[in-house]
From TrEMBL:
TPR repeats lie at residues 114-147. It holds the Pfam family DnaJ. This is Molecular chaperone DnaJ. Keywords: DNA replication, TPR repeat. The lineage of its organism: Bacteria, Bacillati, Bacillota, Clostridia, Eubacteriales. GO terms for biological process: DNA replication. Residues 3-83 form the J domain. CDD domains: Bbox2, DnaJ.
């Protein structure tokens, strides 16, 4: 299992109030009611289970995190506090639309793991580089196939792009590559914005 702080999308050493606030936000986001009759319902259920486990662990063992590299019985996984905090900062920059700052931080990280590739993919997507975005998010899934957030984002990206393209073809819209690429960038940007708590195109 992943670092519980990463699951709750907060920096390590967060206060109990911050942990509870993050938990409530994520539970609302992945609540089953949000995914009724949705093909992503199974992934949302897995994500919610992961969130609950992370929250329970942090509340029960909050005194065990004192900084530095630690190993714990939460999946016997080792991680680095500073790395987790950096990724939390990158996510915060992306949510606020500070893409250049987020990218600058990522470029300074030498350990380019699944989380690095996922966030890099979102940055590429925000800049309109759809192919590079898809490659990085796909790589994130390959590196961490049990991560429900990465899998949901990739599935959502692909399914929404295909659905939008099919609707356009059925209605006789233009099918030249440049127009399709623009539509794909918009639809994929919107779905990944939603993964980070935002909304680019409200009508999608």
């Amino acid at each position: 299992m992943r670092n519980p702080y990463e699951v709750l999308e907060i920096g390590e050493g967060a206060s109990e109030e911050e942990i509870k606030a993050a938990y409530k936000r994520l539970v609302r986001k992945y609540h089953p009611d949000q995914y009724a009759n949705n093909p992503l319902s199974d992934l949302a259920e897995e994500k919610l289970k992961e969130i609950n486990e992370a929250y329970d662990f942090l509340i029960k063992n909050k005194g065990n995190y004192t900084g530095g590299q630690k190993s714990n019985n939460w999946g016997n996984q080792q991680y680095n506090n500073s790395s987790s905090s950096i990724y939390a900062q990158v996510r915060a920059y992306i949510e606020r639309g500070h893409i250049n700052q987020a990218d600058q931080i990522l470029e300074g990280i030498t350990n380019r793991n699944a989380e690095w590739n996922f966030l890099k993919g979102i940055i590429f997507l925000r800049r309109g580089w759809y192919d590079m975005a898809y490659q990085h998010i796909q790589l994130a899934v390959n590196l961490d196939p049990t991560n429900t957030e990465y899998r949901a984002a990739l599935s959502n990206l692909a399914s929404r792009a295909n659905a939008y393209r099919n609707v356009g073809n059925n209605r006789g819209y233009r099918r030249d590559p440049s127009f399709c690429e623009i539509c794909q960038c918009l639809i994929c940007s919107d779905c990944l914005c939603e993964c980070l708590g935002g909304d680019l195109v409200r009508c999608i």
